[in-house]
Amino acid sequence: MSNSELKAEALELFNAKEYPKALELYLYIAGQGDLASLSTVGYFYHNGLGVEQSYAKAIEYYEKASDAGEHSSSYNLGLLYLRGLGVEKDSFKAHEYYLKAAVKGMPQAQFDVALMFEEGEGCVRNYSEAAFWYEEAAKRGNAEAFNNLGVLFKEGTGVEQSYEKAFMLFTKSAMKNSPEGQFNLGAMYGQGFGCEEDQEKALEWCRKASFQGHQKAKDIMYRLQQDGQIVF
Known about the structure:
Elements: H1 3-15, H2 19-31, H3 35-47, H4 55-67, H5 71-83, H6 91-103, H7 107-119, H8 127-139, H9 143-155, H10 163-175, H11 179-191, H12 199-211, H13 215-226
Helix pairs in contact: 1-2, 2-3, 3-4, 4-5, 5-6, 6-7, 7-8, 8-9, 9-10, 10-11, 11-12, 12-13
């Protein structure tokens, strides 16, 4: 049986929650040099699936896979360092591991590393680097990356200010069902930034964000309802 067939079988066992059997198979495949399976073994220990939960063991497997260039293990190591799980909390180490995964093209890592650059967490604050990584994550379909990049263009932070680009980015984020993107798109319509002012569309997008639990949108809709300006 080939490694790909074994991996398919291991995944089937995993989905059936047959964790000890799945782990045994992943350990075997990892022993054949498969880095993704090595990282998966770390994930079993990280979450205590079929084994006693152990961050130390998870880190051991993640580090082996990460050192060999496997991106999901780098991301998971970043997560452990950011939260101080099994290691002393270290946002600089977290940023380093997230960046390693981001360079390998992992959208969630690209988003998280952008956020860290924007907030100066674990690194020197750098808005243009944040914009670069938000754009990389957005290219790969991350809805929140479209939104956050839109905010940078709206404010002209780390990029040349452009309401038109911000509007376009908020639209993409909103269409991907991001409540934050929907709220921001509504605000653009409400103010006529990068688009024709349209209070009906502003209200429509604010309502959509509100239905998804966006607190500011909920507050606005509640106030409008109380003032008798809208009926849900």
